[in-house]
Amino acid sequence: MEDAKLSPDGSYFAVSTGMGIWWYDVSSMSPISLWEPGKGHVSSIDFSPDGKWIIIYTITGIRTIKVLDIQSGECVLQIDDHDAYNNLVCSSNGKWIATAGMDGVVKVLDIQTGECIAQMDRGEHKWKSNDIYDLQFSPDGELLAATAGNPKLYSNDKENYNEVVNPDTEGDQIYVWCPETGEVVLKFAGRNFAFSPDNRLLAGACHDETVNDGKRVDRWVSVWDITSREHIAQFTEHDDWIDDVAFSPCGQYVASSDGVLRVWDIATGSEKKVYPNFSDPFYTKDGKLYALGFVNFSNPIEVWDMENREKLFEMTSGTGLYDLARSIAIAYTQQLANTPPNKRTEAKKPVFSIVQEPQFPWPAPKVIWVDDQTLASSIIRGLALWDVNKKCIRDTFFKGEWINAITLLPSGKLLVSYALDEDSICVASMPDQLIAEFTLPDEPYEWGHHDVLAPTGEYIAKGTREGTVYVWNLEQPEHPILLTGHTDYIHTLAYSLDGKRLVSGADDETARVWDIELGKEIARLPIDEPCRPMGFVYSPCGNLIAGSLKNEIRFWCAKQFTKVRSISQPEVYQQTYPLVFSPCGQYLAGATWWQEGWENLAIRIWDVATGEQIHAFQGHNSPVQSLAFSPNGTMLASGCSNGTIFLWDLKPYL
Predict the structure, then answer these.
(1) Could you give the residue ranges of the DSSP H alpha helices within 226-385?
(2) In angstroms, what is the C-alpha Rg of the chain?
(3) Whole-angstrom Cα distance, residue 68 to residue 45?
(4) CA 456, 459, 465, 468 torsion: positive or negative?
C-alpha cells in the first residue's frame, strides 16, 4: 500500500497499491472493486473536491498521471512522462493538480488540459532535497504550500565517504507559493503547518531558537499573516516535537500538540487550554475541538471531545493504517457535528470489522517451499508459513525481526538470517533456535542488501559495495573468510549444493567462482560481452551453473567452468532475473524485466536441454524478485515488488 484517501462524501476510500487502486466501502470496510489492474504501480492518489474524479500517479516505466471519472472509470485526462513520485494533490477550487517529483521539483498542472502552469521556486542551491511532504492547497485553492525537508546529504564516494555535500542546507522549510506563477509568497523554517479557514494565516511548527548546539527541535508554533508576510504570533510552551497544528473555524485559535494538546489565542498571544496526553487536534465546522487519545500505532485510535472530556469512540487502524483510520474518524466526527443535538444520542456508533492483512517487505517477499502444501515467506517483521490449500497464514515466526535470507536444510528445517541492528546478524532455525550471532566488521564502508545462506547451513555470505565478499562459518563466526578480487558492488551470490563453492557477480562485469575452504578464487566464468551478471543458480545435480547476462541466459559447466549453452533473450528484455531450476533439473524458470514499461512482465519456463520456451505466465505488473518451485515440481511461487505472492499451476505445461 502506498497511499489511501477518503472520498469527499466519506462513503468510500481508495487505496493505491502495486496492483492498482482498491476501492473500499466505509460502511463495511470491505473491498468492492479493483481499478487499473496490471497497468503499473499506483503510488499517489487524490480526489477532486466535488468527488467526481480521482487523480492517480502510475509508474509503468513511463511515469503517468491519470484523471479518472469515478462513475464510469474512464480516463478523462492522461499526462505522460511527468514525475509525481513524492505526492500529488488536487486544488480545492478544482482547477489544478500540484505534483512533487523525485527530484524535489514542485509543479502545478491544469486539470483540464494537463498543461504545466508553473514550477515552484525553491531558490538557488547546488543540491535540492527530494523529500517534499505536506503538499496542500489553501482552502480557496489560490495558494500552494509544502514542507521541503532539506536534510544534510552525505557522500557515498570512497574518498569522501560520509562527508556533507550540501553545507548550505537550510533544514526543514515551509514554502507558500502562488500556484499560477511559482513565486514564493512566504517562507520560514518549520514543518507540520495549517492554513486558516479564511486563507489569511498560516501556522506551523518551527525550531526552538534557544537551542544553539545544532540540534534543531521544532517545538515552537509560529503564526504568519500570508498577505503582509508578517510574523504575528509565536508560542513556546511545548517541550517536544510538534506533531500537528489546526485552526479553529473562526480563525481566532490555534491548537497544537506534542503529546500535550495546547490551544492558543492568536490575538492575545496567550495559552487558552492545556490537555495532557492528547495529539492530532482537529475542529469540526461548529467550532468544537476534538483530538486523538495518546496511543501508539498498534492500539485503537481514541477520538475525544475535548470540551466535554468525553471519549466518543475508538477505531482500529487496519486497512490503510493510521492515517486513513484518522481520516475516517474525522469524517465521522464531522458527520456527527452535522446531526441535530437531540438526535446525536440516537445515532449508532459505527463498528468496523477490519481485516489485518499481511504486509511484505521491500523489495519483495522471499519465498521458499517447506513441503508441497506449505510455503514460507518473509513478511514485515517476521516469517510466515502459508497453508497453500487454504490460502492463509498457518503460523508466524521470528516476530519483530527483518528476515534477510531463508534456506531449507536437508533435514527439512528452515534456516533464516535477520539483523538485530545495522551492525549485527543472527542466524536461527525454526521454530526459534539461535544458531549464531555476530557483529559485522567496521571496515567496509557500505554493505550490500542481501545475505545468502549455504544449503548445508554451514555458512552465510554477504557482499559489499566495494567488492569484497565476507563468508562466516556459523560455528566460528568471529573469524570471517574474506574473498577479494571484485572491484565494485556485489549484486548476486549463489552457493553450490554442497556449500563448498560460491559464485558471485558484480558491477565490475565479472563472474567469479570461489572455493570457500581455501578462501580464494578458482575460476572466472566466461562472459563474451561486458555486462552485469545476475541471478546465478546451481542445478539440482550440481553439474550446471545458470546466470543472466545481457540478452541471454547462459549455462556453464560447474566443474570445467566453460560455456555449455545459452538461451537468447529478445533485446526488449532488460534482464532475466531471478532464475530457478525445477527439482528435476529439466526446466528453468526466470522472470523477465523489460526495458520500457512493466505491463508486459512475464515469468517464463524453458527446457534446459533444448532452450525451448515451454510457457509464459503473465499477471505481475511489477518486477518479480523471488521464485521457487514446489518440491514435486507442480507449482511455482513468485514474490513480486508490488507486495504480492502468486502461485502458478504447472501441471498443464510440464
Answers:
(1) 321-337, 341-344
(2) 28
(3) 11
(4) negative
Mean model confidence pLDDT for the chain:
87
Instruction: State how far the Cα of 374 lies from the Cα of 383, in Å rounded to an integer.
Output: 13
> Are 555 and 562 spatial neighbours (Cβ–Cβ below 8 Å)?
no
Q: What confidence tens digit (pLDDT) does each residue in 324-353 have?
A: 677 777 777 877 777 777 666 655 565 554
In contact, 557 and 604? CB cutoff 8 Å: no
Each residue's pLDDT tens digit, 21-63: 889 887 776 788 888 876 777 888 999 999 999 999 988 667 8
Give the DSSP H or E segment for 322: helix 321-337
pLDDT digits (tens, 9 = 90+) for 353-368: 445 567 778 778 999 9
Cis? peptide before 578, omega within 30° of 0: yes
The upper half-sphere exposure of residue 347, i.e. CA atoms within 13 Å in the direction of its Cβ, equals: 16
Per-residue pLDDT reduced to its tens digit, 227-254: 999 999 999 999 999 999 999 999 999 9
38 C-beta neighbours (distance < 10 Å), count: 16
Asked if residues 510 and 527 have their Cβ atoms less than 8 Å apart, the reply is yes
Look at residue 423 and give its three-state secondary structure. coil
Q: How far apart are CA 10 and CA 133, in angstroms?
A: 24
Burial-class residue 162 by CB neighbours within 10 Å (0-12, 13-18, 19+). Answer: exposed
Question: Is residue 319 within 8 Å of residue 29, measured between CB atoms?
Answer: yes
Beta bridge partners of 24: 13, 31
Query: How far, in Å, CA of 62 to CA of 130, rounded?
Result: 20
